[in-house]
């Protein structure tokens, strides 16, 4: 994975953070907590940390002291993430942070050898099959549990329904599976590919639903999500652009009036829970 992320990406991450926090499967945190070392600070490697949302959500739910190692390719996002991390765990123990800029798809078991836990959020769908295999091999080789949250599944439901919804969803999923700079992305297939890879390495896996539910209280995020969803679908299938203009106006009016509910399905994955 190379290159800087688009300038608006940090805004998108900030906008989605409350919905992410509401969606993540708390049960998996309860299950992983007993697996963590009881002595010394926890060392948590957060892969593709973005603006640090996973750390802000998870650090208060784990005991301290904690040391977070944030991995990302974008230096600006890493700076934002480090600045926004909480100073204390849920029990008041200190939280410290370091950043590592680089290609997380090249991480090895040696890079994660000091980890108590490996985490990621909304990452897997942006990886290829080979990259998922390398990531799983690194986690399995290090013998550390991994909590990988908010992977899209391709299931979207808009209420009230519209005849265009299914065609747009199918085109969007094809866009998620597109090839970028020679990299064939897994998109909505990634989370199950990741689970299968862990099983091949002899690591047990648990999946739990973590859907976004975007109603009137999250109208700004719903509008931003809808715009990106439709734009990606039309980029994948340009013939949809003209025919969906009235659909787009209708849906945006429903969002503005608080009449549209959106469910975007995700799965959270815990590997190495037993």
Would you write up a description of this structure?
With about 270 residues, the protein is an alpha/beta fold. It contains 9 helices and 10 strands. Strands 1, 2, 3, 4, 5, 8, 9 and 10 form an 8-stranded mixed sheet that branches. A two-stranded antiparallel ribbon has the order 6-7.
Task: Supply the key terms.
about 270 residues; alpha/beta; eight-stranded mixed β-sheet; two-stranded antiparallel ribbon; 10 strands; about 40% helix
- What would you report as the Rg, rounded to the nearest angstrom? 19 Å
Largest sheet properties = 8 strands, mixed
Helix content: 25-40%
Q: What's the total helix number?
A: 9
Specify the structural class: alpha/beta
Give the low-confidence spans: none
Anisotropy-based shape: globular
SSE series = HHEHEHEEHEHEEHEEHHE
Q: What is the percentage of strand-forming residues? A: 15-25%
Distance between the termini: 32 Å
The strand count comes to 10
Mean pLDDT: 94
Give me the secondary-structure topology.
Layout: H1 9-23, H2 26-32, E1 42-47, H3 53-58, E2 66-72, H4 75-84, E3 95-101, E4 117-121, H5 129-142, E5 146-159, H6 165-176, E6 179-180, E7 183-184, H7 190-200, E8 205-209, E9 212-214, H8 219-236, H9 245-256, E10 261-271
Parallel strand pairs: 1-2, 1-4, 2-3, 4-5
Antiparallel strand pairs: 5-10, 6-7, 8-10, 9-10
Short description:
This protein is an alpha/beta fold and 274 residues long. It is 38% helix and 23% strand.
């Amino acid at each position: 994975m190379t290159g800087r992320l688009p300038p608006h990406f940090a805004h998108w991450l900030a906008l989605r953070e409350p919905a992410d926090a509401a969606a993540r499967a708390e049960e998996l945190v309860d299950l992983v907590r007993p697996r963590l070392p009881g002595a010394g600070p926890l060392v948590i490697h957060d892969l593709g940390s973005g603006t640090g949302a996973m750390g802000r959500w998870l650090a208060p739910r784990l005991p301290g002291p904690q040391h977070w190692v944030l991995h990302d390719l974008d230096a600006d996002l890493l700076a934002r993430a480090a600045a926004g991390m909480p100073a204390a765990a849920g029990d008041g123990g200190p939280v410290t942070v370091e950043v590592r800029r680089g290609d997380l798809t090249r991480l090895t078991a040696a890079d994660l050898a000091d980890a108590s836990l490996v985490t990621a959020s909304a990452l897997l769908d942006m990886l290829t099959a080979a990259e998922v295999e390398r990531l799983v091999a690194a986690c399995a080789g290090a013998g550390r549990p991994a909590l990988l949250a908010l992977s899209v599944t391709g299931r979207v439901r808009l209420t009230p329904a519209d005849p265009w919804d299914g065609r747009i969803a199918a085109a969007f999923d094809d866009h998620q599976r597109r090839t970028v700079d020679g990299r064939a992305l897994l998109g909505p297939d990634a989370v199950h590919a990741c689970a299968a890879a862990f099983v091949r390495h002899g690591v047990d896996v648990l999946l739990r639903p973590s859907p976004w539910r975007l109603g009137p209280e999250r109208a700004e995020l719903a509008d931003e999500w809808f715009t990106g969803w439709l734009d990606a679908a039309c980029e994948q299938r340009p013939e949809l652009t003209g025919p969906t203009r009235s659909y787009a106006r209708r849906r945006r009016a429903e969002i503005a009036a608080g009449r549209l509910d959106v469910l975007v399905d995700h799965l959270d994955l815990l590997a190495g829970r037993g």
